[in-house]
Specification:
The structure is a single chain. The chain has 451 residues and is α/β, with parallel strands linked by helices. It is built from eleven helices and 18 strands. It has a ten-stranded mixed sheet, with helices on both faces. The chain has a four-stranded antiparallel sheet with strand order 15-16-17-18, covered by helices on one side. α5 packs parallel to α7 (229-254).
């Protein structure tokens, strides 16, 4: 039997579309460092971020998305799908001299995606341990690695506290150049050389705009109307990140992979307090459990799967990306530990409610916070010997996103409910790792050169 040409073409197109929809998406996860809520154009910033703004407009703005209040905890949450209280990384950072890292029994997002057939690569800051080789990225699921292990490296010399910190595939690399540009170059190279018969997971944790505040002269020249030097430098550093994001998006487009690539952009925490106003109306900044420290810039774009102009006001957390991405990739969720993250795809792409009835924002011996619906409880613990009660605050974020009005006194039943839930999380917390510099520690010539 002969079929009309039009029918054959239609069948072929239908088969192609089905194959495309069944394909595992490429995942490009971009994590900025200390990017403030009000440091992007789509939140009204004076900083020029056209590429970030474009991704936001073409996908979903995640406007109630939470991270941890500092670098290491957020990275741990992303790569495990578990609250950092589960393994002692809830407070503080992996310092250059730290003799700990993300525990080796945690199955990372990169490991899970590699098991599902993905090529995995990191171009950016690791910050999850480098004191033993087993803790390095290429031992934690990333087939390719590029960049520093520590935070706060010099953007030009790549030195941190006297030790050199730049690596390729977990061996020292002497590539010269500005850190943000080098990380963008590597991402573009990976995309240009990748064989897309295999799906790609590209993790891009930029070091910028974290301190030291160092920018390229041509980017500083774009902001002559910002008189304060720190703010002008910070703006130029954000601009550099945005420029590299544009190059990465273009590289995906040039490979014809736009419709099969999920882009995610987020910050690891809010901007530091000394950059007044960079978190907009949100209260406080980095290291704080008020909204300015943990409610972060976040977006997702997947052309054809997320409607342009989507705005998600439902609360989500960094831990949610782990199960969400594994399900989209057809990867196994079987692992040694229970997840705290929830599959958030229906919330992001279909307008469903948050998969959480409550989100732990963090808890430590000194402080804690939890959100349930629009209610948020913040607890600051007083030293016991001071014989002073804990400070307990309750906020209705729907009416008061800036956390100006403590309504704990008028809602004692809600305070009791959320305090009980927060205390339950605290009872489950693993004792946090200590980051103190060991006595007699000597800085190595190269950080992370271990046997």
């Amino acid at each position: 039997m002969k079929f009309p040409l039009r029918l054959l073409v239609a069948i072929a197109l239908l088969a192609a579309c089905q194959a495309c929809s069944d394909a595992k998406p490429n995942i490009v996860f971009i994590l900025a460092d200390d990017l403030g809520w009000n440091a992007v154009g789509f939140h009204g910033s004076e900083i020029q971020t056209p590429n970030i703004d474009r991704l936001a407009a073409e996908g979903a703005k995640l406007e109630a998305f939470y991270a941890l209040p500092a670098c290491t905890p957020t990275r741990a949450a992303l790569l495990t799908g578990r609250y950092p209280i589960r393994y002692g990384l809830q407070v503080g950072l992996v310092r250059p001299w730290s003799e700990f890292g993300l525990p080796l029994d945690e199955r990372t997002l990169a490991q899970a995606l590699a098991d599902a057939g993905y090529e995995t690569a990191i171009s950016g800051k690791w910050h999850l341990g480098h004191h033993q080789r087993a803790y390095l990225p290429t031992q934690r699921g990333f087939r390719q690695q590029y960049g520093p292990y520590n935070g706060a490296i010099d953007y030009f010399t790549h030195v941190r506290d006297g030790g050199f910190d730049w690596h390729r595939d977990d061996r020292v690399s002497r590539d010269p150049g500005y850190a943000t540009t080098l990380l963008g170059n590597e991402a573009v190279r990976l995309i240009e050389q990748h064989a897309f018969a295999t799906p790609l997971f590209l993790y891009l944790p930029f070091t910028a705009p974290h301190t030291p505040l160092q920018a390229l002269p041509e980017h500083l020249a774009l902001y002559p109307n910002i008189p304060e030097v720190n703010r002008r430098t910070y703006a130029a550093m954000v601009h550099a990140v945005d420029q590299e994001i544009g190059r990465i998006v273009s590289a995906i487009e040039m490979r014809g992979e736009t419709r099969n690539t999920l882009f995610i952009v987020a910050s690891d925490n809010g901007a530091p307090d000394y950059l007044a106003g960079m978190n907009g109306e949100l209260r406080n900044g980095k290291f704080s459990l008020y909204e300015g420290g943990i409610r972060v810039v976040a977006l997702a774009r997947w052309t054809g799967e997320i409607a342009p102009g989507t705005v998600v006001d439902e609360p989500l957390h960094m831990v949610d990306w782990y199960p969400t991405l594994l399900k989209l990739a057809g990867a196994s969720l079987d692992q040694p530990h229970a997840l705290d993250g929830r599959d958030a795809w229906a919330t992001i792409a279909k307008g469903a409610p948050s998969p959480h009835d409550a989100i732990l924002l963090n808890v430590s011996p000194r402080s804690g916070a939890i959100r349930a619906g629009n209610w948020k409880l913040v607890v600051a613990r007083r030293p016991r010997q001071a014989n002073v009660s804990d400070r307990v605050e309750l906020f209705d974020l729907a009416r008061d996103p800036a956390e100006k009005f403590d309504v704990a006194a008028s809602h004692p039943e809600k305070v009791a409910e959320l305090r009980a839930r927060l205390d339950a999380f605290e009872s489950e917390a693993v004792r946090r790792k200590a980051s103190r510099r060991p006595e007699g520690f000597r800085t190595p010539a190269v950080w992370g050169e271990v046997e």
